[in-house]
């Protein structure tokens, strides 16, 4: 995924590039590529429809500001995500005019940036996707079979290597997976990987390792739909 940064302040460009690199390492999204531009003219010289999936535009630039640049972009590309980065919120109304996805007010923290980029990136299913849990433990998401919680202990059952154990809060643990639509709850205290379901019946699922997990009545419909969706994704991956 190609990401562009347009900012006439080198310091701001370096901060945003650092944040994207950090997010790339944490999330396992190895396909993120960053391209930086000092002004709108330089950006437009390389621009064409579909050239970038996401562009971070500084608003307060000389000659052509970020809003004017966004208007020029929309003449050729309606689909690209645009995030405005600025020290002033006076252009908030204009951001709706050009269908900007988000608005980052400088100076912003890494957590604020992370919230924004996670909201604008499409859902990912790559086998390389990972999350970094507490104490720096990196977990490849597609390697998870399921997780369960008992007596303040969380167990990650893995299809590769040893199972992992953590002490913690289930609600906080589940927050690590909110942006990934294939790691989902099936019952209280249990998360499962939709890609690892072997079969589904009216009240349970059988996982690829043979484990049988109970599914609550409130989750059975979404589990069945998710199972079918992930089967289709796996089929396309193998074509």
Radius of gyration equals 21 Å
Number of strands: 15
Mean pLDDT: 89
Structural class: alpha/beta
Please, what is the CATH homologous superfamily of the largest domain? Response regulator
Strand order of the largest sheet: 2-1-3-4-5
The domain tally reads: 2
CATH class of the largest domain: Alpha Beta
CATH architectural grouping of the largest domain: 3-Layer(aba) Sandwich
CATH topology of the largest domain: Rossmann fold
Percent helix: 25-40%
Q: Sheet bearing the most strands, described? A: 5 strands, parallel
Topology as a string of helices (H) and strands (E): EHEHEHEHEHEEEEEHEEEEEH
**Helix run count:** 7
User: How much β-strand is present in the residues?
Assistant: 25-35%
Spans of 5+ residues with little confidence (pLDDT < 50)? none
**Looking at the structure, what is the overall shape?**
elongated
Taking the alpha carbons of the first and last residues, their distance comes to: 21 Å
What are the salient characteristics of this protein?
2 domains; elongated; 239 residues; 5-stranded antiparallel sheet; 5-stranded parallel sheet; alpha/beta; OB fold (Dihydrolipoamide Acetyltransferase, E2P); Rossmann fold; 15 strands; single chain; 31% helix
What's the quick description here?
With 239 residues, the protein is an alpha/beta fold. The chain has helices at 10-27, 40-46, 66-74, 92-97, 110-120, 170-174, 220-237; strands at residues 2-6, 33-37, 54-58, 81-86, 102-105, 130-132, 138-140, 144-150, 153-158, 164-167, 183-187, 190-193, 197-200, 204-207, 212-214.
Would you write up a description of this structure?
The protein is built from seven helices and 15 strands. The protein folds into two domains: 2-120, Response regulator (Rossmann fold); 130-237, Beta Barrel (OB fold (Dihydrolipoamide Acetyltransferase, E2P)), CATH 2.40.50. A hairpin with a 5-residue loop joins strand 6 and strand 7 (138-140). The mean pLDDT is 89. It is elongated and about 65 Å long. A five-stranded parallel sheet has the order 2-1-3-4-5, sandwiched between helices. A five-stranded antiparallel sheet has the order 10-9-8-12-11. Strands 13-14-15 form a three-stranded antiparallel sheet, with helices on one face. With 239 residues, it is α/β, with parallel strands linked by helices. The chain has helices spanning 10-27, 40-46, 66-74, 92-97, 110-120, 170-174, 220-237; strands at 2-6, 33-37, 54-58, 81-86, 102-105, 130-132, 138-140, 144-150, 153-158, 164-167, 183-187, 190-193, 197-200, 204-207, 212-214.
């Amino acid at each position: 995924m190609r990401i562009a940064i347009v900012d006439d302040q080198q310091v701001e460009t370096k901060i945003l590039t650092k944040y994207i690199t950090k997010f790339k390492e944490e999330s396992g999204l190895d396909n993120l590529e960053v391209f930086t531009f000092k002004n709108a003219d330089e950006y437009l010289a390389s621009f064409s429809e579909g050239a970038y999936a996401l562009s971070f535009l500084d608003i307060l630039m000389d000659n052509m500001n970020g809003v004017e640049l966004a208007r020029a972009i929309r003449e050729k590309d309606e689909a690209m995500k645009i995030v405005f980065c600025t020290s002033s919120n006076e252009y908030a109304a204009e951001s709706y005019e050009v269908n900007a996805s988000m608005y980052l007010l400088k100076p912003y923290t890494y957590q604020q940036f992370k919230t924004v980029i996670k909201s604008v990136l499409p859902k990912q299913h790559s086998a390389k996707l990972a999350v970094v849990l507490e104490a720096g433990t990196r977990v490849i998401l597609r390697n998870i079979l399921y997780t369960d919680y008992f007596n303040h202990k969380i167990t990650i059952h893995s299809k590769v290597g040893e199972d992992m154990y953590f002490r913690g809060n289930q609600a906080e643990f589940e927050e690590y997976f909110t942006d990934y639509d294939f790691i989902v709850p099936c019952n209280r205290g249990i998360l499962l990987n939709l890609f690892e379901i072997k079969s589904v019946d009216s009240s349970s699922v059988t996982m690829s390792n043979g484990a049988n997990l109970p599914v609550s009545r409130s989750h059975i419909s979404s589990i069945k739909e998710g199972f079918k969706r992930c089967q289709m994704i796996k089929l396309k991956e193998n074509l």
